């Protein structure tokens, strides 16, 4: 009966059967529980919405993840521009940790597909409020167990029919 909860159930019901999308939900949920990582997502997400900034993030991600290219790029110049310095420092750290590197690549991909971008934004919003975060974690668990998933999927339908 609560529209936002219904939207969450529908979103998670769609996301969790697809392994890559399920990984995104689990990753985002975990990342939002660690303050420093949450700050990085909050920093990175807006960058990926602005085409020029997204292009820079994608370019820097590529440059910094390939050792030969990283060695050849002018790090001193990149570090002399404040906004680029923030991106380089953040991305260098993120790309040095395999799980975080996977997150950057996943986020960049997700934000390039409109429907997935909308879901990512919804999830990021949901995970920023403790009560909603608890709901996402609970639903993620419920939807990963077939019998419980059947109940979760059936309940919104049952609750929408007055009789």
TrEMBL record:
Keywords: Membrane, Transmembrane, Transmembrane helix. The chain crosses the membrane at residues 39-65, 77-97, 103-127, 134-159. The keyword Transmembrane helix applies. It comes from the Eukaryota. This is Uncharacterized protein. It comes from Elysia chlorotica.
């Amino acid at each position: 009966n609560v529209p936002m909860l219904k939207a969450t159930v529908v979103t998670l019901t769609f996301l969790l059967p697809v392994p890559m999308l399920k990984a995104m939900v689990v990753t985002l949920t975990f990342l939002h529980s660690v303050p420093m990582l949450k700050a990085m997502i909050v920093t990175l997400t807006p960058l990926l919405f602005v085409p020029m900034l997204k292009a820079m993030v994608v370019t820097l991600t590529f440059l910094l993840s390939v050792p030969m290219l990283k060695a050849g790029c002018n790090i001193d110049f990149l570090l002399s521009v404040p906004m680029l310095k923030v991106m380089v420092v953040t991305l260098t750290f993120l790309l040095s940790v395999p799980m975080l590197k996977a997150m950057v690549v996943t986020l960049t991909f997700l934000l390039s597909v409109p429907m997935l971008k909308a879901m990512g934004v919804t999830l990021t919003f949901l995970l920023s409020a403790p009560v909603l975060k608890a709901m996402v974690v609970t639903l993620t668990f419920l939807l990963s167990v077939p019998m419980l998933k059947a109940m979760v999927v059936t309940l919104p339908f049952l609750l929408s029919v007055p009789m």
